[in-house]
Amino acid sequence: MIGMLSNISMDLLICGGAGFIGSAFIRNHLKNNPKDKIMNLDSLTIGSNKDNLKEIEQNPNYTFIKDDIRNFETVSKFSQMSDIIINFAAETHVDRSIANPKPFIDTNIVGTYTLLEAARKYDKLFFHISTDEIYGDAETNISSSEEDPIKPSNPYSATKASSDMLVGAYYRTYGMKCITTRCTNNFGPYQFPEKLIPKTIIRATRNLKIPLYDGGYQIRSWIYVLDHVEAIESLIKNGKSGEVYNITAWNEITNKTVVENILKLLNKPLDLIDTVGDRPGHDKRYSINASKIQRTTGWKPKYEFDQALRETVSWYENNVKWWESLANEKTLHPQPWTIS
Ligand SMILES: NC(=O)c1ccc[n+]([C@@H]2O[C@H](COP(=O)([O-])OP(=O)(O)OC[C@H]3O[C@@H](n4cnc5c(N)ncnc54)[C@H](O)[C@@H]3O)[C@@H](O)[C@H]2O)c1
């Protein structure tokens, strides 16, 4: 399986490509592989924005399909036409999953199952994008590796863990070709305003208080989105079927430090920070070991955290039009799990 798809022009079915990471993958892939064809299937739910792909909308090698990954007829049709199916489509906000788990179960579990069935029917490579959150809380000084137990703490991570297990079962039971990646927290341009970094930038720009759950002691491992999409590219070329790969850039930082750094970059006072009650089931620390992908593909993160954060803050400052209509009371809410 290693190298199976390298050096040939490909047709890719990208699911969830109108979201943050999927759109970064599409922009980057078409730039570096102009002969490849991309079909982007997205239902345009919360988190998505067609403007993320404005620059390639007219590209003849790009097709957009507005549909749901749970629609077997559509996903079958486009799976048949593709060499590889990459699944970015998901309900992705932990806070919303606490307020209402149902859409997470529908898309993340039933949707992944539907895609797996289509991939199985036409014997296609299924590339599943998962998250480090499925490992749950990591003890101090311990980083989870791919063989470690899965211990999700909230409905979002539980549905992502379920989808990972389905992928593993389809590999074992049906001998399907599949790869799963588990990446840490991404940041960069085009991230939906409900997530920590854009929310902090936008609220600070408007001189609104920045809510930090329980003082922001939680540690997350941050990766610039382009490093994530390059890691995926390296696995498309050199990954091994049936394997799971962790992806991290080893930037373990507390949420409080991230927020303080953003306020400093924006020349805003640190007393904008407002400690609010903790989120139920909140994991204290995520930490994973990504030596396997490095050994397998030679991939390494290129972007340095402080510089990438500076550029991300500048992007939001210079692209108010992109986020203005998305940044409403609901997406910027201080405790989103309290609203449904
Ligand atoms: N953002 C992160 O920090 C991060 C980290 C690790 C892994 N991930 C994973 O990466 C993937 C992409 O994350 P993101 O941050 O880009 O999310 P996002 O919320 O920005 O994008 C998700 C996309 O999926 C689409 N979608 C949702 N339900 C759908 C359905 N039923 N049918 C078709 N399309 C549907 C949405 O419209 C949206 O365009 C997710 O699987 C997520 O779990 C994200």
From TrEMBL:
GO BP: nucleotide-sugar metabolic process
Domain NAD(P)-binding: 13-312
UniProtKB keywords: Lyase, NAD
Superkingdom assignment: Archaea
Gene Ontology MF: a single term: dTDP-glucose 4,6-dehydratase activity
SUPFAM superfamilies per record: NAD(P)-binding Rossmann-fold domains
InterPro entries, sorted: dTDP_Gluc_deHydtase (IPR005888), NAD(P)-bd_dom (IPR016040), NAD(P)-bd_dom_sf (IPR036291)
Required cofactor(s): NAD(+)
Leader sequence segment: none
A Pfam family this chain is assigned to: GDP_Man_Dehyd
Protein EC: 4.2.1.46
Entry-linked Gene3D superfamilies: NAD(P)-binding Rossmann-like Domain (3.40.50.720), UDP-galactose 4-epimerase, domain 1 (3.90.25.10)
Protein name per the record: dTDP-glucose 4,6 dehydratase, NAD(P)-binding
Species in which this protein is naturally found: Candidatus Nitrosotalea okcheonensis
